[in-house]
Amino acid sequence: MAALSAGAAAIHFAVTFEHFSEYSLYGVFFLRLATNGEEHLLYDGGNPAYQGLNPQDPSSLVYAINVTGHAPILLGAMYLMPDGVNGPQVGGGLTRWHSHLEVCQGGQIIVAGFNVALRGQCNPSTWKDQYTTQMLHVWVVPYPGGVFSDDLSTAATTAAGQAALAETKPGQLAP
Fold first, then answer.
1. Strand 116-121 with 108-111, pairing
2. Which of 133, 83, 126, 135 is nearest to 104 (CA)?
3. Kind of pairing, strands 38-43 and 29-35?
4. Is there a contact between 101 and 127 (Cβ–Cβ < 8 Å)?
5. pTM (2 d.p.)
6. Cα angle vertex 128, ends 123, 125, to 5°?
7. For residue range 32-57, what is the model confidence (pLDDT) as tens digits?
């Protein structure tokens, strides 16, 4: 699959799954990450179709939640590889598969740098820091750093949310 077709497929599902409630009809989902003005809604089921770079079944949808006076805005998708598997470099250096460090703080598993608690607990005396599975973001709105950017800063999320609103035509529902 070429990088361009992955982005085009992401745009296709974005039209299909614009709202939280619609996306939740297709599986069991939960809020995985809420930080820096965005939320990742992550598939939480046993279907392996939601792993890897599968445009029809993204592992997660990412929404901007920091746009004052506006419902969450779909920004893109996040694809997760199975444990121990590297992501395919379909776009060479443009497709930035990455991982985040998980640490144990006060008995909670925390994503380092984001201070977001994940599901489950940990024992600080026996815990060994570990990395998440590899992930790739595919943005369906203009995003600082490009369509595969791994910048999850507040500034990037805010800019992407504003860009999505600016693309909305009069009389058209906002994303």
1. antiparallel
2. 126
3. antiparallel
4. no
5. 0.78
6. 35
7. 678 888 888 888 778 888 899 988 88
